[in-house]
Specification:
The chain contains 4 helices and 12 strands, in the order αβββββααββββαβββ. It is α+β, with helices and mostly antiparallel strands. Strands 1, 2, 3, 4, 5, 6, 7, 8, 9, 10, 11 and 12 form a 12-stranded antiparallel beta sheet that branches.
């Protein structure tokens, strides 16, 4: 619902759109072409939008995620009075490169070659197969979304759902949120509940039962690294957001927001730039203040 204004904080009520849904696609811009067509059916106005191009995102801590070939997005938004309903679909082929991810899949390829040459072709073939199956090169990513917004003036009700299907080491997931707010003159308090749940892929890794000690240690380390990578890409968290927006002067607002976030077990949620000693799971609190203005 907010894709067109995601980088314009003044355009929406929160400080940040709920990361459970809007973090499903970290892409905020693309280079390409777009097509928009508006039509009317009586009192209903409908807008059809299609974009096609390429995109890239820099990853905190080093690395890049980028599309390979094309990034397609299409949506249809219907508006009647105070109600807006939107459905959308996005798909792309992508590459994800970070120092840790590249080292992991390079290690699987090297282990496969070493194990095969040392007389353990089954373990070598297993390592190579895992690398091919989970390698984050030319992976497919699909997002289907549905949202509704009711804004008659004094009230604001908004809900969105997003379903992700993906290949490689990225797990499928479902996300959604519901927001309710009320305007008291220039003051607009609001409450949001949000959740994203991943269908985490389970991978036992390389079987080390018949391997000599050194190869068994290597297999165990690579298996642990693969599990960590899968868990890092399987985002699960729940959030409660409480905040208020104060439009204290023309074209300027002041916002205060408190986020209570509960991370899924074995998940770092939507946190960026996670440090090596971070323990997945648990809870965190975020208090934010922002001032938005347009000119």
């Amino acid at each position: 619902m907010l894709s067109d204004t995601r980088l314009v904080g003044y355009a929406y009520t929160w400080i940040r759109p709920p990361e459970e849904v809007y973090g499903q696609s970290p892409v905020t811009n693309q280079d390409g072409i777009g097509f928009n067509y508006r039509l009317h059916f009586g009192s209903v106005a409908n807008s059809l939008n299609v974009t096609y191009g390429k995109a890239s995102v820099q990853i905190p801590g080093g690395g890049e995620a980028r599309t390979v070939g094309s990034f397609f997005a299409g949506s249809s938004t219907a508006e009647r009075g105070a109600i807006s309903v939107r459905i959308g679909y996005t798909s792309f082929l992508g590459d994800l490169h970070t120092p840790n991810v590249d080292a992991l899949f390079s290690g699987l390829a090297q282990f496969g070659a070493v194990a095969s040459s040392a007389g353990y072709p089954a373990a070598g073939a297993q390592a190579l197969s895992l690398g091919d199956r989970y390698r984050l090169v030319r992976f497919r990513y699909y997002i289907a979304t549905a949202s509704v917004n009711y804004d008659p003036g004094s009230w604001l009700l908004m809900a969105e759902l997003a379903k992700v299907s993906a290949t490689a080491a990225i797990s499928d997931s479902v996300a959604g949120y519901f927001t309710a707010g009320h305007r008291f003159g220039n003051l607009s308090p609001y409450l949001t509940i949000a959740q994203v749940e991943a269908d985490t892929k389970r991978e036992p890794g390389i079987s080390s039962a018949s391997l000599p000690p050194l190869l068994a240690m290597g297999a165990a380390g690579l298996s642990a690294g693969l599990t960590a990578a899968i868990n890092a890409l399987a985002v699960s968290q729940k959030s409660l957001l409480i905040g208020a927006r104060w439009d204290f002067m023309k074209n300027t607002d002041l916002k205060l927001q408190y986020d209570r976030v509960r991370l899924g077990s074995d998940s770092s949620g939507r946190l960026g730039n996670v440090q090596p000693n971070f323990q997945p799971g648990g809870e965190l609190n975020v208090l934010s203040v922002a001032c938005d203005f347009v000119f």
